[in-house]
Amino acid sequence: MSTLADFHDLLDDAPREPQSNGRAGRIALIVFLVVTFLVLGGSGGYVWWASSAALPAPIVTSQAPAVAAGPAASLALPSGGQMLMSVEGGETYLGPDAAGAFASSGGNDPRPIASIAKLITALVILDAHPLDGPDDAGPTIAFTEADTDLYDQFYVQDAVIAKMPDGLTLSLHDSLATMLLPSAANYAVANARWAFGSESAYAQAARTWLSANGLNDTRIVDATGLDDRNTSTPNDLVALGRIAAGNPVVARLAATEWITVEGPGYVTNTNDLLGTLGITGMKTGNLGDGTFNLLFTSTLDVGVGGPLNITGVRLGGETHDSTDDDVVRLLQSLQDGFHDLSLGTVGDDVGTISTPWGSEASLVLTRTAALRTWSDTPVAVNLDTVTPQNYADGEVVGTVTWTAGPETTSSDVKIKGAIAEPTLWWRLTHPTELG
């Protein structure tokens, strides 16, 4: 129910006419208000409605600054030889083709693989004589005199060998470890003979195994890889690396830095990058004269949740050390391609909020925000606001959201500086803008 006090309030809120307009205008206004008050005031009516009606939504002008994308990644690939790297687990950042040839150089022609062939030897043997997990010793191998003679045979060829005393017996697990870690040629042939009766029978079994696993561009003629007719392509070798990583026995051995075995003694892994940039395997191989190879796997932490699962190969490195350096540079460049972008700091202006009755304040961020992105992935910015309840300083009135690839983050937006409420006079004179 409107009262005389309401009327006086209206008079107080009403704009004052300049004296130059005369008394007539003011008298007309008073008459209008009195009539309005008498007609509508008795039942609450217009004054009550106007004083409590919902206010119109404010006008938000977004000034949320665009965020520049990070620098484009530059993957470090060698100028000579061949290299191929595939990445699984990062497709939402790197694109759907990352699990294929994400980074490559030098083409896909077959090249000698050297001791990477011993990885195939292990997989083919385990296919015929599987172990029950990486801790299973498996059957015992009793090496023959012909096996021990292999030591001298490969010694004169300047191949890598490991001690094999007369009468030695070893578990299949330890014999495979002695073949794989130091890359002992005499154990490769001895293992192949034990598993298939002869090295030539092994070679036939290897060809069958390669065909069954779709490695049709890989050729195996012996168990050691010393013959340069043992060849493969980068595509096949990356596929081979995935197969090896999926075999618990081979994967465990490939990740082992050293082992002590009765007979051969203390043997170390020729892959001295184990543990560097997440490298977990897989096999070195070299024939000298610019034929240094490394098939590698890595679980690389790039700061985006789970690590990336990487399989790659370097063929035709100039030296063992330069081959290692090529792999390290490529993995490092991939890791460096991920970076944190600064999006905004607490108190940064991201817009203004203004009302139809002429009040205005700034909108500012309530927290500092950053986003992890890959390469030069663009960053989208979106500001959503709601109608304030109290138009008070510090009142949260929306959210700004930043998105880059699969990553998103946000910050609340608040009013900086109070927005004045509309006067009763403004409400009474703007009925069409009230809810």
How would you portray this structure in words?
The protein has helices at 4-13, 22-40, 45-52, 91-94, 117-128, 145-155, 172-180, 185-196, 199-212, 234-245, 248-254, 320-336, 424-429; strands at residues 59-62, 82-88, 103-105, 111-112, 140-142, 169-171, 231-232, 258-261, 265-268, 279-288, 291-300, 308-317, 338-344, 349-354, 360-365, 369-374, 380-385, 396-404, 407-416. With 435 residues, the protein is of the alpha+beta class. The protein folds into three domains: 4-52; 59-70 and 342-424, D-Ala-D-Ala carboxypeptidase, C-terminal domain (Peptidoglycan synthesis regulatory factor (PBP3), Domain 2); 82-336, Beta-lactamase (3-Layer(aba) Sandwich), CATH 3.40.710.10. The strands form six sheets. Strands 1-14-15-19-18-17 form a six-stranded antiparallel sheet, with no helix packed on it. Strand 18 (396-404) and strand 19 form a beta hairpin. Helix 5 packs parallel to helix 8 (185-196), helix 6 runs antiparallel to helix 8 and helix 8 packs across helix 9 (199-212). The longest helix is centred in the N-terminal third of the chain and has 19 residues, at 22-40. The model is unreliable at 1-8 (pLDDT under 50).
